[in-house]
Design brief:
Distance between the termini: 44 Å
Helix content: 25-40%
Number of helices: 3
Strand content: 35-45%
Structural class: alpha+beta
Largest sheet: 7 strands, antiparallel
Number of strands: 10
Shape: globular
Oligomer: single chain
Strand order of the largest sheet: 3-4-5-9-8-7-6
Radius of gyration: 18 Å
Length: about 180
């Protein structure tokens, strides 16, 4: 019985070590102004856009849409779950401001990063200019009252392929010193 427990404990330590090394070996996008970084999905490109505080990440362009990951931050003293709920409520009430014809909340669940940061994952479906779009928003605490939002967007048709990529990127999130 003790040998089985030791073998199990050794296996768990090995798997955690492999997972941490895999996170550390990625190409990280460090946003010094925001105080965070994430792993860039393999094959994706990083691009600066005028007027944007943080760089944008883009996947392979399709005929009608390019999957992307963008970042925003805000100062807010509320707990991350309350902040995420307020963000969702705002989007559901004001979706027409960004040109969407409809937005539906799919899920809101806790998420933990490889670095141990606790956050919230919010999935929404929107109709935008005739396209069915899925948006995954990952809310994290930054430094002090800073809130960081990673938004990953794709066509609904690409969900099975891109959701795991988005989740891996979000789980690689970490605060930088």
């Amino acid at each position: 019985m003790i040998i089985k427990r030791m073998a199990l404990a050794t296996a768990v330590v090995f798997l955690v070590t492999v997972a941490v090394r895999a996170q550390d070996s990625c190409q990280r996008q460090v946003e010094l102004v925001g105080g965070f970084s994430i792993c860039i999905p393999e094959g994706w490109r990083v691009q600066e856009k005028e007027g944007q505080k943080f760089k944008l990440l883009f996947g392979t362009s399709g005929p009608t849409f390019t999957p992307n990951i963008n970042f925003k931050d805000a100062i807010d003293p509320r707990p991350i779950s309350d902040y995420a709920t307020a963000g969702v409520d705002y989007i559901l009430k004001n979706f027409q401001e960004v040109g969407a014809t409809s937005v539906k909340l799919i899920s809101k669940t806790p998420i933990t990063t490889a670095a141990g940061a606790q956050g919230m994952k919010v999935a929404m479906r929107a109709e935008f200019k005739g396209l069915l779009i899925l948006s995954q928003q990952y809310y994290f605490n930054g430094k002090g009252d800073q809130k960081l939002i990673l938004t990953a967007t794709s066509l609904e048709a690409d969900q099975a392929t891109l959701d795991p990529i988005f989740d891996r990127a979000a789980k690689s999130f970490r605060l930088e010193k």
